[in-house]
Design a protein that fits this description.
The protein has 245 residues and is an alpha+beta fold. 19% of the residues lie in helices and 29% in strands. The strands form 2 sheets. Strands 1-3-2-11-6-7 form a 6-stranded mixed sheet. A hairpin with a 2-residue loop joins β8 (186-191) and β9 (194-195). The radius of gyration is 18 Å and the shape is globular.
Length: 245
């Protein structure tokens, strides 16, 4: 069954975005989000960051890979909400196309993919750094499949330049195809040579070292090709959408 989701449109105002989230109740937010001048400035800088990031991105530029002794002993775990209860034995991910009807979105013409199907694809591993927008970073060894290899079985159309990610905790994001075809962008199911822990996004998550941490979606339950960049959870709250490193 396709997961239905209702993320806000990128055209919604910041006022509307704050009305539908508990952040609206934080002290000090109201005056800022009421200011059309400040909102215009924030939007302009966010758009500039995205444009510059897109221009500078290159699939030939690889992020640094580290030796095993550089692996962070205690890898900090950030998450938006509670850790969802997912069983690797029954976990499935729906892959299809994004259908948009007003403010409602769903995944249509989907194919279910389980963990065993992903493991049958050629496995790769890399030791790379994940950087959080909060300022911390951590290094781990990730094992999985190149996202570009995974995508070959689904043949996205040339005009479908974006992929919508839907997570089991209702988090969502959108990534561009250039990032997903980068050789270090992985669909991972192992962390430090062990099955990917649930707390870190297991059974399957995205690892894209060229992106800031919040773009590395955990607990993936749905993927949908789309011609429209509908935006992700955090860029609807004022963070840059592209956020390349």
């Amino acid at each position: 069954m396709a997961p239905n989701h209702n993320p806000p449109s990128r055209l919604w105002s910041r006022r509307r975005m704050l009305q539908v989230t508990p952040l609206a109740f934080l002290g000090g937010c109201t005056a800022l989000e009421e200011s059309t001048v400040l909102n215009s400035i924030f939007d302009w800088f966010a758009g500039l960051n995205d444009r510059v990031g897109s221009l500078l991105f290159s699939s030939r530029r690889l992020m640094r890979e580290f030796p095993p002794e550089a692996i962070t002993p205690t890898f900090k775990n950030n998450r938006y909400g509670d850790t969802p209860a997912l069983d690797p034995e029954t976990w499935e991910m729906l892959v299809g196309r994004l259908a948009i009807a007003g403010d409602s979105m769903s995944i249509k013409h989907g194919t279910s993919v389980n963990l065993e199907a992903i493991k049958r694809l050629p496995k790769v591993s890399q030791i790379t750094e994940l950087r959080c927008v909060e300022g911390w970073s951590a290094i781990a060894k990730w094992g999985g499949v190149r996202f570009s290899t995974f995508l070959k079985d689904f043949a996205p159309r040339p005009e479908e330049r974006f992929l919508f990610f839907y997570a089991a905790d209702q988090y969502y994001d959108v990534l561009d195809m250039d990032t997903l075809h980068h050789p270090q962008t992985l669909l991972v199911y192992e962390m430090n040579d062990q099955p990917l822990p649930l707390d870190h996004g297991g059974p399957v998550r995205l690892i894209a070292p060229t992106k800031i941490g919040y773009k590395n979606v955990k607990w993936i339950k749905g993927l949908a090709f789309t011609t429209t960049n509908v935006g992700g959870f955090w860029d609807h709250k004022g963070y840059p959408w592209h956020y390349g490193l």
